[in-house]
């Protein structure tokens, strides 16, 4: 079995969330439980940990790890935007701490069959929740050229969105676009030579993933409902990995009448963390307190 996902900004999240014994903590993107294992150790035997994730495979891995810590916990398969519904189902109205670590786990990215990465060849799936209907292949093979171009521009800020969309539509007339490598090659074929450090297909893949999983809408809904679930003095920390998400979190915290911002400056990983874990490099964490 593959090594566990390396939790990002773990020390900073623990320090700034100020998790204490006996608390109720909700990890809304529990993944494989990298952060939650440490939350569990802090809350101890009298605390309660709730984990949510769209990915059932991730939940299985988290379940096994948390069982070893011996903490009281409950896991939910579903979307964090439904946090209120999950809590109500176990008769909890208010919690002490809420945590979100957006994006994807290493195993989701590296698993070819999930279709998230252009680095490994696999079907163009990109669904975090395997029960949902829309895949990236459906978008690429059935949406109009203007719609594909719009998705790449809005969710990937891709400068060459029109060019890429045109090429996608041209190629799919010959044969449906089915794999991550086919898509990456299409992007490469129309992309001007550049000295950029990121792969030309990075933004296209990001855009499709965000669209397929309605990531920004989920985050906005979550930010509307979650402050009311926090106890007074309770804290919420959110780690995002691209500017679209970070902007949404920053504005929601700033404009909320129920929250006070704790970290005036956004929290980013240290150089030493980035040297050990390259995936941490784009992480940005914001923390707020319920007033
Ligand atoms: C970066 S990983 C979390 C890793 C975890 N903190 C750890 O250290 O093991 C992000 C997780 O969020 C999940 N996820 C993304 N969007 C979600 C949503 N709207 N609702 C619930 N889970 C979501 C993904 O399936 C993934 O497992």
Name a few traits of the molecule:
single chain; about 290 residues; alpha/beta; Rossmann fold; DNA polymerase, domain 1; seven-stranded mixed sheet; 13 helices; about 45% helix; elongated; binds S-adenosylmethionine
User: What percent of the residues sit in helical stretches (DSSP H or I)?
Assistant: 40-55%
Low-confidence stretches: none
Task: Based on the coordinates given, report the CATH architecture of the largest domain.
Answer: 3-Layer(aba) Sandwich
Give the biggest sheet: 7 strands, mixed
Summarize the structure.
The chain has helices at residues 10-17, 34-43, 56-69, 83-89, 106-110, 136-142, 145-156, 161-174, 180-190, 202-212, 215-225, 243-255, 271-276; strands spanning 24-27, 48-53, 73-77, 95-101, 230-240, 259-261, 284-290.
Description:
- By secondary structure, this protein is an alpha/beta fold.
- It has two domains: 10-107 and 215-290, Rossmann fold (3-Layer(aba) Sandwich); 133-212, DNA polymerase, domain 1 (Orthogonal Bundle).
- Helices cover 44% and strands 15% of the residues.
- The chain has helices spanning 10-17, 34-43, 56-69, 83-89, 106-110, 136-142, 145-156, 161-174, 180-190, 202-212, 215-225, 243-255, 271-276, and strands spanning 24-27, 48-53, 73-77, 95-101, 230-240, 259-261, 284-290.
- It has a seven-stranded mixed sheet with strand order 3-2-1-4-5-7-6, with helices on both faces.
- Helix 7 packs across helix 10 (202-212) and helix 11 (215-225) packs parallel to helix 12 (243-255).
- The radius of gyration is 20 Å and the shape is elongated.
- The protein binds S-adenosylmethionine.
- S-adenosylmethionine binds at residues 5, 7, 29, 31-35, 52-55, 58, 79-80, 101, 103-105, 128, 218.
């Amino acid at each position: 079995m593959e090594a566990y996902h390396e939790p990002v900004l773990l020390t900073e999240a623990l320090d700034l969330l100020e998790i204490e014994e006996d608390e109720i903590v909700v990890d809304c993107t529990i993944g494989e439980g990298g952060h939650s294992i440490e939350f569990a150790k802090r809350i101890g035997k009298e605390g309660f940990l709730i984990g949510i994730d769209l990915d059932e495979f991730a939940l299985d891995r988290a379940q096994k790890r948390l069982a070893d810590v011996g903490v009281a916990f409950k896991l939910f398969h579903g979307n964090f935007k439904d946090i209120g519904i999950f809590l109500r189902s176990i008769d909890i109205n208010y919690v002490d701490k809420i945590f979100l670590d957006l994006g994807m786990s290493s195993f989701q990215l590296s698993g070819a069959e999930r279709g998230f990465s252009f680095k490994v060849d696999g079907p163009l799936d990109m669904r975090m929740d395997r029960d949902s209907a829309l895949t990236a292949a459906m978008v690429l093979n059935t949406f109009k050229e203007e719609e594909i171009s719009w998705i790449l521009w809005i969710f990937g800020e891709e400068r060459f969105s029109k060019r890429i969309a045109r090429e996608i539509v041209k190629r799919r007339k010959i044969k449906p676009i089915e794999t991550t490598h086919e898509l990456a090659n299409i992007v490469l074929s129309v992309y001007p030579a550049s000295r950029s450090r990121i792969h030309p297909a990075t933004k296209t893949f990001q855009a499709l993933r965000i669209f397929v999983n309605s990531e920004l809408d989920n985050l906005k809904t979550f930010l509307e409902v979650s402050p009311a679930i926090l106890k007074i003095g309770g804290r919420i920390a959110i780690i995002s990995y691209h500017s679209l998400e970070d902007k949404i979190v920053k504005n929601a915290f700033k404009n909320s009448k129920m929250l006070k911002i704790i970290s005036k400056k956004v929290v980013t990983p240290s150089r030493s963390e980035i040297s050990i874990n390259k995936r941490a490099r784009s992480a940005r964490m914001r923390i707020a307190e319920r007033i």
